[in-house]
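Hi Q.,

Before the meeting this afternoon, I wanted you to have the calcium ion prediction in hand. No need to reply - just skim if you have a minute. The sequence and ligand are here:
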Amino acid sequence: MPSAASSSHRPHDDVTSQQLVRAGSWTVAITGTMIAALLLLDEPLPWARVLLNLGVGVMGAVAVLLGHLRRWHQAGLVLVWGVWAVVAALSASNGGLRGPSLLNFPVIIVVAGWVLGARYTLWLTGATGLLFVVFVWADLNNYMPPARYGNLAAYVAYLSGVLAVTAAATLLSRRSYLRRVREAQQTASSLATRDAELRKLLRAVEQSPESIAITDLEGRIEYVNAAFLTRTGFAQDEVIGQSSSYVSNNGMTLVQWVSLRDTLARGENWVGEQVNRRKDGAEIVEAVVVAPIRQPDGHITHYVEIKQDVTERRRAAAEIHRLAHFDALTSLPNRTMLVERLTALRWRGGVGSQPLHVLVLLDLDRFTIFNDARGSEMGDRLLQAVALRLSQMLPAHGLLVRVAGDEFAIVLHDLGLLPPQASRRALAFAEQLQALLLQPMRLEGCAEEAQLGASIGITLYPQNAADSPHEALRRAGTALHRAKQAGGGRSAFFEQGMGEAAEQRFQVERSLRQAIAADELRLFLQSQVDVNGWLTGAEVLVRWQHPRDGLLAPGAFISIAEESDLIVGLGTWVLTHACALLAQPAMHERRLKLSVNLSARQFRQTNFIPQLRDILATSGADPSLLTLEVTEGLVIDDFDEAVAKMRELAALGVEFSLDDFGTGYSSLAYLKRLPIQELKIDRSFVHEAPTNADDGVLVEGILSVARHFGLRVVAEGVETREQADFLRQRAPDIIYQGYLFGRPEPQEDWLARLPASNAA
Ligand code: C2E
Ligand code: CA
Ligand code: CA
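Predicted structure with the ligand bound:
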């Protein structure tokens, strides 16, 4: 809607002018034609005037037509100038200044003003003045024709028509004028309201405590409010035109940035939290809303960023979290944190794939007595000192908690998949804790050193899918109580049986560690003979001469040793002694071979090859007389690497035997690629081979595979003649090992029998 104040306003844009043009055009068209028609009645016929009046009518008709085409300006021009020109000609033909037609001019001038605007009044007045000057000049020089009255009736009709139009126009324009005034008043008042509204909004934005920035679509700042400037420490001219992320030293993460971009691209509001920086570098945490600003037609032109300073709130939240999760005296996490951690470690997988964790509950013995005797201040210091000591023991990922008073808890993560293993590790850890706490502590402001033992309760966690932190705490508490009842300074498992088993295995592990150094290991040998009874060598089988329990078979300690690096030390001991034996002339001269069991962990040691090379070199043993017995389990995990390593060892001259063949995967594909020279048929097959058809077939199969690959075969556990015969009939070059030919015996005894057995 064009407003009244608009400078580009043209009369025809408004309805009143258009109505005027239309009314004028019709009046002129009708009256012009009518007068021309009336003039036709005159005698003699005044042709010139008929034509001129007809001209007026035609002009009017043309104006009517243009008005129909809504070409109001052209219609106005034709109406005003066309009629003026024809009337001028009419006046000239009818006495000039003396003629009656002069009356037309004021009418035309006034109408021109209404229809085309004030400028045209001036133009027409000028043109009419000029015309009058010409008329005066023509009159003075007698060029003017005499004025003749035309048809009086026609003239009256014309003038009354003009008068009617004039009156109507005056009326219309007055109404229009009043309406415009009213409109203008309304617009002015609505503008004033809107202005007040805008000012209010502006003040609200300006003075908002939240920092507000408006950016263009590229993120360049166009406006910032006072809060923005105060908070960021920038001056207005330092930020306008800058990128918004630049001035807030934006702490958005990449993820946030992508989400912001995508959200805005969808035309939605983005809400998030950013760690931004002030101009001086100080951090502010801000809750941020970025919203697109839409125009009425819906397209987005700007973004508004509203940021709320939540630094204090975050700091308070962190402090509340700290207070709620940490103990004030020792700064250790508290019970809440313990429960949260245990919750996070809840049951995930099935049996065998669920890593086991351990909850250790520790309570100082006689703390109350200490506290009463030395005062609570000393008591506090002691607790702090204990906390420090315990935290030094804590493994990575472990959690140490002060539960209450003198009670601490420790969570040990991932102690294995199997309960026996996990509980043994837990017990070892508990022993270390107790030893550590027994070391005297020097407390500030206390002359004597303090020394307090501790009781410990242990439970494995989680035990099943339903196990919960509170259940675990209850179990550990029960165990702790039991440990206290037993007199303090002890560790107890909730799972009593497990505790005993773990305790036992733990004891074995501990004494085995000393056994190697204390020279308690013994080398036993079990003969291997060919079908003719000729001795070919022996398998080396370790024994432990336990100071209290007597001679122990490997079953009692090998599997425990294999769970830790103990097996490496043990294996090295066996290899060293076996090689020393091989180097003895009694063995060497008879070219008797020794087979040594090699455990996976030992084989995987990075320095195993150089170590064996060393042992061979130091002992002077002939490598070709040494056979290393490996199991399929040793190669299966990383087949290629194992094969590569075996090849390197084979290059030293040693041979390989695949032990317990038939009990494992026994994949022929593997067998083909393994650099081995010997297969050992497991004793379980040998036992049943003559009596059980299935086992018989299996042994036959193994023998034919061995023949196919050109492998030597040792049959283990041969106890009877039948077994020996069964084997010999199918493989004449088989080697026997079993009670039928000799039990494992101490190497000295075995050596002592040598000449006799070989002579047999
Ligand atoms: P293995 O390698 O299969 O050793 C053969 C086992 O069968 C030996 O048990 C041996 O005494 C037993 N045996 C031999 N002939 C007969 C028989 O006719 N009947 C019966 N029922 N058993 C027979 P041992 O000495 O108790 O060794 C058990 C396992 O301990 C060995 O099984 C081996 O895996 C492991 N082991 C023994 N010494 C060592 C060692 O020095 N290092 C490693 N890593 N493991 C060893
Ligand atoms: Ca063996
Ligand atoms: Ca075996």
